[in-house]
Amino acid sequence: MKYAYANKKFKGAVTEMATSPKNIQERIGDAFINHLIHLEIEELPKKIRLKFSDMFQRLTKYEAVGNKGSVQATIDQISTDEAIEIAGNIVYMADILYSKLSDL
Residue 1 in 3-state DSSP? Predict the structure, then answer.
């Protein structure tokens, strides 16, 4: 199954965002670091590659500071509205991956 690994990673990311008691910035940061950061763009359907690339850039915008990596430095700077938008994009991409697997 072509997208099974990516689907598994996005499912983990969505579950983490939905069940964590942390704020939305921390939840998207954890979902990204723990599940999505190592996905390669080629592992994704073409329909979501641009959105994934945009998310990657948005969550690594700031350079690492001290013992904080670039993702942590970035989520410390983003607004709640931007974090909500990124979370929505993660859910959207997860849905596309799930539908691709359902089509097989």
Answer: coil
Other Cβ atoms less than 10 A from the Cβ of 56: the count is: 16
DSSP state of 61: -
The pairs formed by 57-63 with CB atoms below 8 angstroms and a separation of 24 or more are: 58/82, 58/86, 59/28, 59/29, 59/32, 59/86
Overall average pLDDT of the 72-94 stretch = 97
φ/ψ of 68, rounded to 5, equals -95, 130
Cα 84 to Cα 89: distance, rounded to the nearest angstrom: 9
- Whether 32 contacts 72, CB under 8 Å: no
pLDDT at 103: 61
Give pTM, 2 decimals: 0.93
- Alpha helices for 1-104 (secondary structure H): 4-19, 24-31, 46-59, 70-75, 80-103
Tokens standing for residue 89: 């994009």
Residue 51, amino acid: K
The token duo for 35 is 């599940």
